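Example A, followed by Example B.
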Amino acid sequence: MTDLILQYAPSSFDSQIVLLTLIEKNIPFSGVVVDTANFAHIDPNYVRQTSICGVPVLEHDETVTTGTDKIIAYIEETFEGPDLRIGDQEQIDHWITRVMTAHIEELTLATPTYALPFPRMFSRNRLKHEIDIANRLTRDVHDLGEIYREHVRILRHQFRTIGDEWKINDYYRNVGVVLDALELQLKVSKFAAGNDYSLADVYLTAFLARLDALRLGYLWEEEDRPSVFEYAQRVKSRPSFAKVFGEESVPTLFSDAFFMKALLSRLAIPAGLVALAIILVLIF
């Protein structure tokens, strides 16, 4: 039994980055899935334990660490295993920044998929419902009020953003800019920061996996960005990829089952829209 516990959500982009890191470093851990579809991440007991409304959360001995970058730093400083800071340090930091400023969460909420053909309507409805719950908790759970208020601020920003066509299109354009830069880098090195798989590649693996799940994998077709195409095949062949994103991993946001659970779990959506969603899922 390991004393390292990761609380995570399978569909969480940040959780996927931490999972990849732990698996790449061969660090044993116990995983606890937080049911974000049913808003377990804002339950007062969870928030009181973790001091955040979200995932991932790393617990080790009596230390609780939140925030992806802080969790990764803690893992690197505390545990043995393959050195993921290997390679050009400036390049590693550069790619981490590029990935974490690519607005993946907003693109996930706004991009149509087979399971969610009309994402913005459902995403905004879900966000509004979560905002309502968090506002109520702000009033009822006084000692956690500041945490809930900050969470509401983030949710409101997301709500506004996914309704802003200009911003979303700008985020799509930025994805192309990141992929173009990666294409150039991969012409001179096997991986993003050198010839060894590094922390930069952990972040980029999650980045490409998310874009692929959003049906944006055509952006690196072999004839358009051949180096990124080959790179994507290399990172997908790593054992860590199959464990986090493969068919044997837990259901993700992009599976029909997870979508329907999120849709039906305490969402204020009229029955007619739910019926329409079920029909669309069956068709697509």
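Example B, a separate protein, is given below in the same form.
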Amino acid sequence: MKPLALASRVAVACLAIAAISSVPSPDGAGTAWAQASGMGGAGQSNTVVVRARVKAINQKTRKVTLVGPQGNTFSVIAGDEVRNLGQIKPGDTVVTHYHSSVVYVLAPAGTPLPKDTLDVAGGRAAPGQMPAGAAGAKMVLTGLVVGVDPVAHTISLVDRSGGAVRTIDVVDPERQKQLPNIKVGETITAVISEAIAIAVEPAR
């Protein structure tokens, strides 16, 4: 199961999302595996920081031309959700912090389970300030295990309320080793969190 891009649904993050999708991930973007504290599961988290310099800006069309960390140039259109666009000048730097995490919790049959939920929150700079914004989202999803194939490295899940069976290819070697421990009738709950924060630093 891949983390969903939930935070991208929040309009205030439009500049940051364009910056992340238009430049390669920096060398510092790593992956940390850890035991999920108090949840009996395994988790994965990723953090990316991207800095892009403002090369040009057209206040009438709201087109912003940026130069990424690899020297690549790209343009984005800042929607009306981006407040205080007039404060941005060539030479300023758009700094984006993006964090995502997913925790997988395996539970035996009969275990009380959380409800499937989706919570989204966000905010942006006050009028007159440099443009800035933050958005976050958390989704909880649970699937019922109806099939496990350790040889083919697949696991089949279905929504607890019914529906089509979804077979997932497990490509991570560490998780492939755990497949024999998963039994039909157990449940897998994914807690997916994403957060994004954007700030504009004035040129110095």
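On Example B: Residues 1-40 have pLDDT under 50 and may be disordered.
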